[in-house]
Design goal:
This is DNA alkylation repair protein. It holds the Pfam family DNA_alkylation. It contains 14 helices and no strands. With 240 residues, it is an all-alpha fold. The protein is globular.
Length: 240
């Protein structure tokens, strides 16, 4: 099989659906120049798995595509490559570099979520985490989402410090899509160390309501009710 961006997009077109195009167009929140082919996510992921051996130059060509599904395919291929059992640190660095260098093309919440944990987080697992703090302070919403979403991989390994620190940096963010990611990270922190999550939540003078709802989702009902009640004055997105 010819593992090129052109063949990948041609393959996606065989799954085109007008109904799916309408659905995707409603929730896509990225750049206005983006075009939607209309491909179910399962078909995009399955195609990406078949093209997982695609050279990185062709993956970058997919990121350059105007098609949403092509870019979703690109980040999916990066994720599949990051999962390989015999991947070297140099190869993992190449995935990480491509993701960050072309972050301008990773411009929707699901594109970030598809690849940031393994492509960014896994690479940084045994390295300094300073790049994530730079991303957390970025003016770009998707770079900030990468910062917190990459920590999901640390949390999975039982490492929660950076997730909590970056969550703290993003509590005042103006965007609800960041509040949701922060809440998800905190929820996962609670699975590792519930006591530390609760202490973190209690120490905040106010929390975005959506963050608090996500963060407390897996806590015991009485404790969750208490924390949600205490957060009745929580910040709304875009305020405070």
């Amino acid at each position: 099989m010819d593992l090129t961006a052109r063949v990948f997009i041609d393959t996606l077109r065989t799954f085109q659906s007008d109904e799916e195009r309408t659905k995707i167009s409603k929730y896509y929140k990225g750049g206005g120049e983006t075009e939607v082919i209309g491909v179910r996510m399962k078909n995009t992921f399955d195609t990406a798995a078949r093209f997982a051996g695609m050279p990185l130059a062709e993956v970058e060509a997919l990121l350059d595509s105007p098609y949403y599904e092509a870019r979703m395919g690109a980040v999916s291929i990066l994720d599949f490559k990051a999962r390989r059992k015999r991947i070297t640190d140099d190869e993992r660095r190449a995935l990480y570099d491509l993701y960050l260098e072309r972050h301008d093309r990773i411009d929707n919440w699901d594109l970030v979520d598809r690849a940031a944990p393994r492509v960014v987080g896994w690479y940084l697992l045994d390295k300094p985490r300073a790049p994530l703090y730079e991303l957390a302070r970025s003016a770009d919403i998707w770079e900030r989402r990468t910062a917190i979403t990459a920590t999901f991989w640390f949390i999975r390994q039982g490492d929660i410090d950076d997730a909590l620190h970056i969550a703290g940096l993003l509590l005042d963010d103006a965007e609800e899509l960041i509040h949701k990611s922060v809440g998800t990270a905190l929820r996962e922190v609670g699975k590792v160390d519930q006591e530390r999550l609760v202490r973190f939540l209690r120490e905040q003078p106010a929390l975005p309501r959506v963050t608090l709802r996500y963060a407390t989702e897996k806590l015991p009902p009485e404790l969750r009710a208490e924390l949600l009640g205490a957060g009745d004055t929580a910040r709304s997105p875009g305020k405070g």
